[in-house]
Amino acid sequence: MKYLKINQLKKPLSGNIDIAGAKNAALPLLAATILGRNEMTISNLPDVADIKTLLKLLEMLGAQYSLDKNIAKISTIKLDKTTATYDIVKTMRASILVLGPLLARFGHCEVSLPGGCAIGQRPVDLHLKALELMGAHIEIRAGYIYATTDGPLKGAKIVFDKVTVTGTENIVMAAALADGETTIINAAKEPEVVQLCEVLSNSGVVIKGIGTDKLVITGRNRELIDIQNFSIIPDRIEAGTYLCAGAITNSQITINKVIPEHLESILYKLKEMGFGIEKTQSSVTILPAKKIKPINLITTEYPGFPTDMQAQFMALALIANGTSIIDERLFENRFMHVSELLRMGADIHLNGSIATINGGKELFGADVMATDLRASSALVLAGLIASGETNVHRIYHLDRGYEDLEGKLNALGADITRCDESL
Ligand code: UD1
After folding, report:
1. I want to staple 114 with a disulfide (CB 3.0 to 4.6 A). Which of 4, 93, 272, 391 is the partner?
2. Please, what's the b/e burial string for 60-83 (b: 16 or more CB within 10 A of its CB; e: otherwise)?
3. 114 lines ligand 1 (CB under 6 A)
């Protein structure tokens, strides 16, 4: 196993980096290729483990693909299998995204039930309930979801109890091949959901209300789609993480190849903390703060503050002059990074979903453990400013969603080495 050795930064970071394509946009779009009847080219794919996992799953289902750096050519013409096995789903919960498209195309499928994960229970009941409303018969047996339909799925009115990102994506994909019109009320509005809808829409699926919380999808009654080539949107969470790297080291850095509009809630909080922000159409520069102020933030659905940036902002709150409050509303257990930050000398108190962070305490380098994807990046951020050396272990979490994190940070002047645990 590998770990990252991070030496305290001697001088501020500086320079520019390019942001990769969004993992969470690429995953549903790769799943959507199951609805296609053609070979398509997808560009700007991030070079991260989760993408390789989904490509492998598609291959197991009978798709063919080639991957050259960030461009994949995928053909789903010969797709003929319908089982997403435990082996794959256990490594990546987002494998549940094949449920909707497989069921819509074949009328049956078997997808391993994702278990809980480090950040909480994460049920998929809303996905299943919505598919049942579309006429699916769902049974859970031996850890698998067995879904079948009599004929095509039927258009239906779905009202989601909670806003669910992958739930909305699953139902949009299922609805695209259903018989009749599906209306999704309380749909997710995340840019990644919007891109899925846009790609399907550009490929001939009639979808009204894209970008709103009410989507109306006209089904094609199992007629497969000629999916047009597309390029994945920039990763707003990767972008936010590098802005936090600039902030925590009080540096000036620029991130390129971003859509600043997708970063509004993050930029707003950085400005509240006292950092300067300059934007162009496709870049954001963060400028040092004179005094770093504490923040209050609540994680919520887009366009609110993303839960996927909560851990990084907690690291950032450690250097604020005063007490910050973070309220995690989406996932009940998404504070696993707290105990690791405490080992570095942080002063954080947890009370249910609320973390109180007393900033300004000296941080010490330590051996710390990554527990989930975003928690890992928070530990790296803390390592940049902690005295001495910080070793972040179990970085396979990090590799699931960040393309060459240490390479990009080192290009900005950090001193991070990937090491082998056994050495
Ligand atoms: C997606 C993102 C993840 C992000 C999360 C919230 C992907 C691949 N992952 O995860 O990075 O942190 O959105 O922005 O895009 N819920 C239920 N029942 C369900 C589904 C969800 O109760 O059937 C609950 C969840 O437990 C959670 C809330 O709804 O409390 C939102 O979860 P959801 O939006 O579904 O998260 P994911 O789509 O899994």
Report:
1. 93
2. ebebebeeeebebebbbeebeebb
3. no
Q: Which residues pair with 350 in a beta bridge?
A: 355
| Under 8 Å between Cβ of 216 and 209 | yes
CB atoms within 10 A of CB 121: 10
- The best mutation among 92, 119, 162, 374 to test binding of ligand 1, ranked by most ligand atoms within 8 Å of the C-beta, falls on 162
Residue 97 is classified by DSSP as G
How many Cα atoms occupy the beta-carbon half-sphere of 182 within 13 Å?
35
- Could you confirm whether 109 is annotated as catalytic? no
The CB of 182 under 6 Å from ligand 1? The reply is: no
Helices (H) and strands (E) in the chain, counts: 14, 24
Residue-by-residue DSSP string for 152-193: S-B--EEE-SS--HHHHHHHHHHHHTSBSEEEEES----HHH
Let me know the angle formed at the C-alpha of 234 by 240 and 250, rounded to the nearest 5 degrees.
25
| Cβ–ligand 1 contact at 122 (below 6 Å) | yes
The sign of the dihedral angle between the CA atoms of 339, 342, 343, 344 is positive
pLDDT for residue 371: 87
Coil, helix or strand at residue 229: coil
In angstroms and rounded to an integer, the radius of gyration of the C-alpha atoms of the chain is: 22
From 29, 122, 397, mutation site for ligand 1 pocket: most ligand atoms within 8 A of C-beta: 122
Task: Please give the single-letter amino acid code of residue 234.
Answer: P
Whether pLDDT at 118 is above 70: no
Sequence-distant contacts of 204-213: CB under 8 A, at least 24 apart: 205/176, 207/172, 212/187, 213/163, 213/185, 213/186, 213/187, 213/188, 213/189
**Closest ligand 1 atom to 128 CA:** 23
Read off the pLDDT of residues 327-376 as tens digits, 9 standing for 90 and up. Answer: 999 988 899 999 999 999 999 999 999 999 999 999 999 999 988 888 99
Q: At 228, is the secondary structure helix, strand, or coil?
A: coil
Nearest CA to ligand 1 atom 20: 124
Q: Whose CA is nearest to atom 39 of ligand 1?
A: 166
| 376 vs 373: CA distance, rounded Å | 5
125 Cα to the center of ligand 1, angstroms: 11
Name the residue of 57, 233, 330 whose CB sits within 8 Å of the most ligand 1 atoms, as the mutation to test its pocket. Answer: 330
Cα 293 from Cα 270, distance rounded (Å): 9
DSSP 308: G
